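Re: that backbone. Tokens:
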């Protein structure tokens, strides 16, 4: 890895002089907005969400949420109509359910006289790695992420203002272990350090990832977290498992959770 970085540093002037290319971000030209779907089922016993909105031409625009759709989830045996959440625009809720490992789930959406669908299953989940922190010079703590033994997404929530888990965390961050080789990942910009006081409560959730879910996250990260590095490419479309006319992703994950109060 050190030799690769050394070669890249030698080539930097050549890249700067020969490979610089302007890119005009074009947001117009779509005949009609696409349906944006955000949906995740887990093995947690709870009401899961499906969030619907529409693509927009201007990045500064507020999302236009979809409140007049019919949303179903089929588990191989029965189909269930999701209920519209009266408190959150564009959000549809399941009953209190738990997704099962190895089972296939299909998401059906009927909106604006069109039908959309996606099929998903989960990979096997793995336990969380031990929680590691390091003490800073001023006596606070820094969270240290360990690469997982299997592909995963880890959500980290840290609270010290209000330790009630129903409250919004003071810090929320996501970390990924993907079994892909991506030059943008290797040379991604450094992630901001997570610093917090002693006595804070750290909640971690580790989500299992199928290969298709990894492909979606890789394409998403290439357009967001991994941008700004040496090997940036022109923005492109993010992968999806939705049928034509929709974007986003429908996923099923097995989740491992732990809560720690760090002194």
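Recovered sequence:
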């Amino acid at each position: 890895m050190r030799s690769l970085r050394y070669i890249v540093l030698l080539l930097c002037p050549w890249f700067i002089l020969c490979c610089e290319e302007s890119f005009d971000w074009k947001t117009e030209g779509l005949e009609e907005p696409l349906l944006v779907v955000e949906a995740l089922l887990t093995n947690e016993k709870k009401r899961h969400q499906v969030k619907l909105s529409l693509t927009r031409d201007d990045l500064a625009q507020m999302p236009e949420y979809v409140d007049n759709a019919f949303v179903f989830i089929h588990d191989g045996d029965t189909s269930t109509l999701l209920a519209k959440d009266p408190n959150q625009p564009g959000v549809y809720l399941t009953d209190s359910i738990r997704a099962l490992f190895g089972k296939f789930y299909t998401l059906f959406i009927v909106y604006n006289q069109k039908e959309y669908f996606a099929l998903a299953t989960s990979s096997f989940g793995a336990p969380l790695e031990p929680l590691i922190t390091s003490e800073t010079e001023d006596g606070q703590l820094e969270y240290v992420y360990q690469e997982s033994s299997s592909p995963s997404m880890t959500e980290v929530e840290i609270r010290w203002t209000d330790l009630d888990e129903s409250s919004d965390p003071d810090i929320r961050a996501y970390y990924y272990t993907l079994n892909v080789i991506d030059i943008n990942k290797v040379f991604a910009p450094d992630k901001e350090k997570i610093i917090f006081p002693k006595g804070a409560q750290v909640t971690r959730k580790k989500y299992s990832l199928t290969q298709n879910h990894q492909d979606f996250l890789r394409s998403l990260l290439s357009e967001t977290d991994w941008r700004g590095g040496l090997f940036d490419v022109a923005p492109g479309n993010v992968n999806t498992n939705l049928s034509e006319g929709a974007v986003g992703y429908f996923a099923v994950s097995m989740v491992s959770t732990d809560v720690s109060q760090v002194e």
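The radius of gyration is 21 Å. Helices lie at 2-18, 183-186, 211-223.
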